[in-house]
Amino acid sequence: MDIFSIFTLLGGLAFFLFGMNVMSSGLEQLAGGKLEQLLRKMTSNRFKSLLLGVGITAVIQSSSAVTVMLVGLVNSGIMQLGQTVGVIMGSNIGTTVTAWLISLTGIEGDSFFNKLLKPSSFAPLLALLGIGLMMMAKSNKKKSIGSILLGFAVLMNGMELMSGAVEPLKDSPEFAKVFTLFSNPLLGVLVGAVFTAVIQSSSASVGILQSLTTTGAITFGNAIPIIMGQNIGTCITALISSVGVNRNAKRVSIVHVSFNLIGTAVWLALFYIVHMIVNFSFINQPINEAWIAIIHSIFNILTTLLLIPFTKLLEKLAYIVIREKGKKEEEISFLDERLLSTPSVAVSECGAKTLDMSHVAFVTLEESLALQSEYTDARCEAILSGEDELDKYEDKLGSFLIKISAKEISDEDSRQVSRMLHSIGDFERLGDHAVNLLKVAKEMHEKKIFFSAEATHEISVLQCAIREIMARTQEAYVRNDTKLAALVEPLEQVIDHLIADIKNRHIARLKNGYCTIELGFVLSDLLTNYERISDHCSNIAVAVIESAQGSFDTHEYLSEIKQSDADFASEYARCRKTYRL
């Protein structure tokens, strides 16, 4: 084996890692927000969590990525530690899928069926189809499928390159002597752990081990400890990701490490104890790619069967290793940046936070409306607290969404990000207007001034319309309902006319001496804020509609529906009739 073989080996490793990255990225984009939805629905018990871990890791092809995602979710307060234990166990099983795919390279035989199953036969066709979809397809979904196919083809090509590069070593006695060192199982575990920790991928390190089997120098006795060590080494990514997070999130990585350490200790010890008794005849025989995949799967399945009854004990062990620091409650990250490593999950969690923000905005507004008829200090505090919370939501969500938008995400996720970016500013402004209404109510309360019975009736009609537009807007946003969102703009136009009518009636009363200039200023402030509230509701509704259409030309949309939309005219007439002064 010369220097050029080493270059080929390194190049093959680069192709392998790049292909895996492209394939997993495409799979994740294709899955979209479904990953996060599954996490929320299927972590109610250990067996559902286990199946979920298997499924998600099989999709994104990385147990490390799943664990990092779990660290981020726990650090954000979205998941509890107990919910992650089963997912971690399942992820160790799911990551063995890659080894099974790679084992296809070891298929031998000259029959058409055998040749068809070999990656060297079908990978070029997958690459051609994949690049065709990526270059010519218009939808992100088809492009994601193309990147999956291309990534798989590149991965397999890298595997073939590595296997070809190390093939000359089968005639090298020096190389065979190196692997005799691994007759010590503890050294094999250490080498597997360290090498996997360096490249931060058990799938890749298992793939390299599979490529080395072509030399014939690796035996079952060499491979078994190394495979177990590779499962320990993959924990390094989770340990690195736990730096700077709260204690509960750190415990996720401790569960991951504990699972693999305990599994390795138990099964390695049991294997060699039984070997001492019965003397396994296969232990010194050369191993191939398929057997490495089989052993990789068996180890993780057996470890899961061993430890799944003790998920609570694993959780307690994590608490023993990472102890509570007094009684002070730790601050939870709003949205952990580790979630950005899985953009579809980050988008979904931003969606959940934006819904929370919308709830705060409309509850705060309702408090400000109620304050007009019944002034209390408790309501004032609730409004100020809500407005402060909305400011924080806008700042943190806005920054996080900008970071997500720089990632490669699906069409659907992109639309959701746009909808949120166009809406969070309006939610925050609703809080500002709630505070403005508080100031109006406070002024009237302190000065002990009141509107006339006629003005009070007019304002109550307007408030009813404001409450309805708020309800329509909130429900349309929460349900992402474009039909309901289309009913917001007609009501907004009715509110504009109501406000104009109330202003004209006030001027008439002022001329006749039935109202004061001081009350006129108060009424003007009140009406201005009601008008702005309806405007922001309209903006939010338009964002819902236009995100579904993939276009954000608000002015053009509003002009079109006002001029030519029959449904708009019908709903406007109905609302005009409902809210008459």
Structure description:
This protein has 581 residues and is mainly alpha-helical. It has 2 domains: 3-321, no CATH class; 337-578, Phosphate transport system protein phou homolog 2, domain 2 (Methane Monooxygenase Hydroxylase, Chain G, domain 1). The chain has helices at residues 3-31, 34-41, 46-60, 63-75, 81-94, 97-102, 112-117, 119-136, 140-166, 173-180, 185-199, 202-212, 220-233, 236-241, 247-278, 289-307, 311-321, 343-371, 377-405, 411-447, 453-479, 482-485, 488-511, 517-549, 554-564, 566-578. Helix 11 packs across helix 13 (220-233) and helix 15 (247-278) packs across helix 16 (289-307). The longest helix has 37 residues, at 411-447. The protein is elongated, with a radius of gyration of 32 Å. The termini are far apart. Residues 327-332 have low confidence and may be disordered.
Q: Give the number of DSSP strands.
A: 0
The biggest beta sheet, please?
none
Cα(first) to Cα(last) distance is 93 Å
Structural class: mainly alpha
User: Helix fraction?
Assistant: over 70%
Count of DSSP helices? 26
Strand content: under 5%
**Are there runs of 5+ residues with pLDDT below 50, and where?**
327-332
Q: Over the alpha carbons, how many angstroms does the gyration radius reach? A: 32 Å
Q: Which of globular, elongated, flat, extended, rod-shaped describes the shape?
A: elongated
What value does the average pLDDT take? 82
Can you tell me the number of structural domains? 2
* Helix and strand pattern: HHHHHHHHHHHHHHHHHHHHHHHHHH
